[in-house]
Amino acid sequence: MAETTTIARPYARAAFAYARERQALGGWSQLLAVAAAVAADAPAAALFGDPRVRAGELVELLAGVATGAGVAVDDGARNFLRLLAENRRLALLPEIALQFEAQRAEAEHTLDVEVTTAMPLSTAQRAALGAALKNRFGREVRITEQVDASLIGGAVVRAGDLVIDGSLVERLRRLEQQISRP
User: What residues contact 141, with CB distance under 8 A and at least 6 apart?
Assistant: First the structure.
């Protein structure tokens, strides 16, 4: 895993620098997300490792999928994908996309936060949570919401490595541990 991260880092940095210079971070985020999804697909991964499939064919496959998903693929993007294909590094696309997004968040002073709740948040709850998280982290916050009824109540907030578990299930688990202690 560390090796994958290390190998992917210069590619992610290069993609980020290129996209930032052209003020195209959003477009490159979309491109890398689509390409990473393709790379994570087992049949595509098999093609990436097949020496009989030429680099140009792999680039056209990725560009075609991205275009089909409504993502613009310019010459710079094709060159980037070609470089990865020629160096047999297409399998690194999920890690490259992950590192690219981390660099983008740092540059834009944003933080992606995943909030899992027992029931969907109301607009007011979402706004209040966003304001509280912005105050805590000192950054703009992009909230991704998921619903998991098994939490019973409360919420679980994930921001990078930080996890704040305020779910009712977790509170009940802690209460059970306290009661069962001799």
Answer: 110, 111, 112, 113, 130, 133, 134, 159
